[in-house]
Design goal:
The complex is a heterodimer of chains A (240) and B (94). With 240 residues, chain A is mainly alpha-helical. Chain A has helices spanning 10-34, 40-53, 71-78, 80-98, 106-129, 137-163, 165-168, 183-216; strands spanning 58-60, 64-66. Chain A has eight helices and two strands. In chain B, 60% of the residues lie in helices and 0% in strands. Chain B is flat, with a radius of gyration of 20 Å. The chains are: A mainly alpha (240), B mainly alpha (94).
């Protein structure tokens, strides 16, 4: 899902940067306000986790490959605004050092993987888990479905960004200047490959990791106290 | 440990084709792809290391090294951010 340089025209990539700037600024402010110094190590870990998980390319029939992103998990555990920052940093290093994802497309890639995934995954998880116990099966399932939803929706959005290129940017004769395939091809190609494979991988990773953290160290989970936990008399003093 | 699995998948992710691959797919290289794709020359393109691209073993080692380097860099960025934040907090206390 790392869109390279040359696939998005200036109309799209400039627009995506303009959308991302206030999001990055707000995420930075949010972090400064809410981050405790002892949580910094979790952020470092989360960014490193995102970076490595994106290197696990999985082949699909038809010669294409893809991977999980892991920013849904970060959003569920540490909060979506944290995931915006950690995933953006991982994407920046991938882009600058390893040429994975374009410089011009960096805004779009961040929007897809560091905004759409975290927020869709987090709110999907939150909606499904309701007021259930932190280590309940329902919450593990909610994390998995959240992860699946986040990556699938992001794939659709990335497909949309690429698919509008032939409409937005072409020569006078109608020859595409950037991504040559239209919406009718890009959106289903991205949606289907993710929905049936990569997002399932993402869901499994998200559910397993969430289940493990919920069993071993639930106090680090974002909004732990306000998550309706404590029904069984467990009172925590962790910050909301 | 399983990191080089990513290398076994030889295909290119959807929409991440190189100019050459696009030529094969649609029969031409869109002008924007031709002009923008060379915009940035990443030093370790596609997680490879110079001199380690000949063999699968070499590629695997490079892939490992890239994963470690990337993870360390990601961690490092946040340790720096964390330091800056705690310094601010200490200043505010004074």
């Amino acid at each position: 899902m790392h869109i390279p340089d040359g696939y998005l025209g200036p109309l799209t990539y400039v627009a995506m940067y303009i959308i991302m700037i206030p999001i990055w600024l707000y995420a930075g402010t949010w972090l400064r306000k809410n981050l405790k110094s002892k949580q910094v190590s979790y952020l470092a870990l989360a960014a490193a986790f995102s970076f490595v998980i994106m290197m696990f390319n999985v082949p699909i029939p038809g010669g294409s490959t893809g991977h999980a992103v892991g920013s849904g998990l970060v959003a569920i555990i540490l909060g979506p605004w944290v995931a915006v920052v950690t995933t953006s940093v991982a994407l920046l290093i991938q882009c600058l050092l390893f040429g994975d994802g374009g410089i011009t497309a960096f805004g779009a890639n961040c929007f897809n993987m560091a905004v759409v995934i975290p927020f869709v995954a987090f709110y999907g998880y939150k909606f499904i888990s309701g007021r259930s116990e932190i280590s309940s099966r329902r919450r593990v399932l909610a994390a998995g479905i959240g992860g699946w939803l986040g990556l699938t929706v992001a794939a659709g959005v990335a497909g949309f960004e690429m698919g509008i290129q032939p409409i937005l940017e072409h020569t006078a004769d109608g020859v595409p200047l950037y991504m040559p395939y239209g919406l009718g091809i890009t959106v289903p190609a991205m949606l289907l490959s993710h929905a049936f494979l990569f997002s399932i991988l993402e869901a499994i990773i998200t559910a397993l990791a969430f289940g493990y953290i919920a069993r071993t160290d639930p106090t680090i989970i974002f909004n732990y106290t306000s998550a309706g936990v404590g029904k069984g008399g467990v009172k925590t003093t962790s910050p909301a | 440990m399983l990191v080089p699995i990513g290398l076994l998948a030889s295909g290119t992710a959807y929409g991440e084709w190189s100019a050459n691959q696009l030529q094969g797919l649609v029969g031409f290289v869109p002008a924007g792809v031709a002009s923008l794709s060379g915009l940035w020359h990443a030093p370790l393109r596609e997680y490879s290391l110079p001199g380690l691209s000949g063999t699968f073993l070499g590629q695997s080692l490079a892939y490992y090294a890239s994963a470690i380097l990337g993870a360390v860099l990601c961690g490092g960025v946040f340790i720096l951010i964390g330091r800056a934040l705690t310094r601010n907090a200490a200043k505010n206390k004074e």
